[in-house]
Every structure is written in structure tokens, then in C-alpha cells.
Amino acid sequence: MTIRIRAALLLLSGPCCVGASVAQASPALRPVRGVADPQLVHQQAVSSRRLAGERHHSPTSTTNFGHTPLARRAPNVLLILADDLGFADLGCYGGEISTPNLDRLAAGGLRFTQFYNCGRCWPTRAALLTGYYAQQVRRDKLPGVRSGAGGLRPTWGRLLPEMLRPLGYRSYLAGKWHVDGRPNACGFDRSYRVDDHDRYFGPRRHSQDGERLAPVADPSFYLTQSIADRAIAFLQDHAASHADRPFFCLLTFTAPHFPLQAPAADVARYRQTFASGWDEVRSARFGRQKALGLLDCRMPPIEREVGPPYAFPEALRKLGSAEVNRPRPWSRLGDAQRAFQADKMAVHAAMVDRMDREIGRVLTQLRRMRAFDDTLILFLSDNGASAEIMVRGDGHDPRAAPGSAGSFLCLGPGWSSAANTPFRRHKTWVHE
Of 157, 195, 218, 397, which residue has the fewest beta carbons closer than 10 angstroms? Predict the structure, then answer.
């Protein structure tokens, strides 16, 4: 049974290889001790030592990965998915953002350097959870049929929890869904589903176990924390009532997808960090990546004339002259533009930082319920950082502090180029 579970999980990592989002296009890589062979992985993926074991094993190995032989009991699985995270955003991938919890997982496991995804939210999630290419299950664009974001999976395109249930697993979802169907009708025993992708401080469209929840009015609410709270509650219930069964927990953060919104105290930690601009940040991240042994290649130049994949002129008018829709040389920006852009990246960093802290709380819960050593932990992003610039939700108040509920800001192509170091483009592009 355990071998079947491991095979399913590794297989499901593969169909994310529909193509490499530009943030995932492969440079010349070399195998390095502690870093997975480049033929196996790429785009942020960190696994726990349950995957790596006390020694460095190939991810396809069926040998013992811990103190207890896996054949004695199927492992728990915690799959953590970030949204629009750049390849270089984590500390263990060369970033300057504080991510100690993910860095510790990386140090005790494997950092994947050639791991593919579909470049967009819904195709990646469909491929990950079904084991099929997104086009096969109509979750990427196909001519002549209802497909893409509004596509409906064929009945044979079942999700992983449905396949795990006959093997004794209980399954939990906490976070962004972006898959067709309802979680509890797709094999999840408990679910907290977020469908509001425009508000971190007051989501209006979210539900638990299929029951719609009221819009949030609590001023202390922050979605990244709430998603972790729900996951922890599900795990606590599992430990109390179902400890004899393995679990699959899908923890899907909306962070750091736009809008760039984060608690003011978190943003303040990074207020001066990015004043040097995206050109210097990209160069510094690349240097650290080489020092970490993650890659051995030349860094391609930023593609200065490549902007957002969609044109929304009205958004630029609302955001004002401080916004730029091309990754222009930092030295050519005006003072107001530099200040505005540095503030945006500070919010992005705060969102990544907060996500790491919440992951740490979930890992603490695993330790408290004595499940950490029997849990396969995987971390990845659905695509690379985004060059998109738009205004949705409640709109953008130019008087609002960057990162507050009244603001609606996007990372844009300049900072996306730094977040996706060493790659050339951004979320949406699919090529090598």
C-alpha cells in the first residue's frame, strides 16, 4: 500500500510538467550534494526529511526513509502550495526574505531545482490533484470544448483524495481551491475553501465543509493566518478522533498572489530592504544561488520590453505615474517611482515572511500530535512570480498605505524579474 501511495505522489509531481512557466525554464544545472538531481525537479519544491531520510536517497527510491519502515504504515502527507511565489523568494533559494521554517525543511530534505508547473493557478492544481495533464481534464484551454478556468473535469478525472480514501486516508483542505467541483464531493473529509482572491483582510467568498461563511468584518483578520488556523484545527480533530488513520492535508495559501496586502508590522520589517532596486536584488539573489550550489549558468539579462501578459490601461490610470509596466532599469526611475516600487516589494516580502511563519505553526502542530516524523512534507508554488498589473476587488485608494486593505497593488514585471531569478520572464509564459 505504501509503495502505491508514494508512486501516486511522485506521479502527481510530474504532470505539472505541462511546460515550464518562464520562472521555471531550466538553466544549465549540475547535481550538487543536498540538491536533487536536475532531471527530477525545479520551481520551489522543498520536501521533508521523510522524503530524504537520514541519508541522501533518490526521490524514486523505495528504501527506508525514517526510523520506522514505511511498509508498516502509510505515511501522512502535507502538501503546501504557495501562489505566485518566485523561484528566488525563499532564503534557501537565494532570497533575502526571512523563511526559517522552509529553510529548515530544505536543510533536512531536498531542494528541487528542475520542477515544472503549468504557469497558471488552475491548470497546475488540476494536474497536481488528478495526475493528468491539465488539457486532458479540460482545465487548460482546448479548442471547441468548455475548458480552462471554467472547464469541468471528465468523471474519470478524479482528485487525489478520492484515490486515497480506499487506502484508509482522511483528507483535509485549507485554503485556495480554484478547482472545479466542491471539495467535500471530491474526497475531502473537511474543507475550508477560499474563493475570494481579492481580499486578505476581509474575504467575502469562503466556506467550510460546503457551508458558506459570512463575510469577515474582524479588523484583526488576515487570510494567511486564518488558512493556517483551519489546517491546525483539522489536524487537531484528526489527532483526537482519527489517530489510527493516515491523513492527506492540502494547505493552499493565497500568498503572495496579488493584491499585495499584509499586516503593517510585517511590512515595516522590509521597508528599507529593497531600496536598491530590482536590478541589484536580482544580481544578489543570483550570486547566492550559485554559492548555494543551486545552479551553474549565466544569468540572462532582464527582458526590458516584456510587460504584463494582459493590458489594463485603466489600472495604470488608477495607480498613477509611480507604477511602471516594464522592468525598466532602476537607475532610470524617478524618486517617487523608486519609493513606490520599493514599498510594493516590501509588502510582497511581508506576505512570504508571514506565510513561512504560519507554516511553522502547522509544523508545530504536527510535532505536538507526534506525526511529524511520519509525514511526507512537500512545498511548491503553482507558478512563478507575476508581472500582472490590475485593480480588482474593492478598488485602489491612492491615499491608502501600500499593503493595507484599501490598496490593490500588484508586483509587476520589475520585481517579478527579481523574484524569478535567474529566469527571464514571469507567470503565464510556458517555455524553456
Answer: 218
